[in-house]
Amino acid sequence: MIRALALAAAMVLGATVVAAECRQALALGLDVSGSVDAREYRLQMDGLATALNAAEVREKLMMMPAAPVRVMVFEWSGPADQAVVVPWTEISSLAALDGVIATLRATERRDASPGTALGVAMNEGELHLRAQGECWKRTLDLSGDGKSNLGPPPRDMQARLARSGITINALVIGVDDPDTDDIRQAEIAELSSYFRAEVLLGPDAFVQTALGFGDYARAMTQKLVRELEGLVLSAR
Questions:
Q1: Domains of the chain by start residue, with CATH
Q2: Using CA atoms, how far apart are residues 218 and 93, in angstroms rounded to an integer?
Q3: Strands 137-144 and 24-31
Q4: What are phi and psi of 58, to 5 degrees?
Q5: Distance CA 166, CA 156 (A)
Q6: How far apart (Å, rounded) are the C-alpha atoms in residues 93 and 72?
Q7: What is the dihedral of CA 40, 46, 52, 54, to 10 degrees?
Q8: Is 152 helix (H, G, I), strand (E, B) or coil?
């Protein structure tokens, strides 16, 4: 009887280990289209690195070592212009996280087409996440400072991906130096509404806003904390 119970417990434990391989796959797509200049590119790349290095984000990433988060980063702009910056990396140690941060800080801007193909970026992110089907949750984060003007409409892609099982969140970036605060708020509100209607996917999807690229690090930190919070709390 004892041997049978031990065997049953081992089988349950083994199943738990298999199921706990990955609690979240997080693909981060960064807008590098023509509206993003060299200074803004650097603020975006370093801002993501700063967010990943924030104490609260580091703590949440490392909170469940038996079920780590997997992270990848890609750039997007025109219909045929996407590039992987950080391939899928399992954040199973602080060294792995520091490696991702170092890669982001060392990445230099490449030549990119000026167009904004948001629908293509959505499809690109889903393709990357499709390879992470064993993860408990698969999330695509798209950062952008403008509406799509090339490629398939985001709304069409949103409908096509509705059964993919992924979540799409957005970090919407407003203009850096508007003439007045009223212009700043109106611009970010309109762009947020566009992303909310055309891009977001999943019941818990949300838009995070950055009031200019100088605010990107703060906004990204808040977004990562929110995304990682739910899975940590549910696991507890």
A1: 30-235 (3.40.50.410)
A2: 24
A3: parallel
A4: -60, -45
A5: 16
A6: 16
A7: -100
A8: coil
pTM: 0.85
CA–CA distances in Å: residue 39 to residues 32, 36, 58, 73, 223: 11, 8, 26, 19, 22
Instruction: Grade residue 15 by pLDDT with cuts at 50, 70 and 90.
Output: very low
DSSP 8-state class, residue 131: T
Long-range CB pairs of 104-108, under 8 A, 24+ apart, other chains included = 104/45, 104/46, 104/48, 104/49, 104/52, 104/73, 105/45, 105/46, 105/49, 107/45
Burial 212-225 (b: 16+ CB within 10 A, else e): bbebbbbbbbbbbe
**pLDDT tens column, 149-207:** 999 999 999 999 999 999 999 999 987 555 545 455 567 889 999 999 999 999 999 99
User: Per DSSP, which regions of the chain are E strands?
Assistant: 24-31, 69-76, 82-90, 137-144, 167-173, 207-210
Q: Is the dihedral of CA 109, 177, 144, 150 positive or negative?
A: negative
* Cα dist from 178 to 46, 129, 212, whole Å: 23, 36, 9
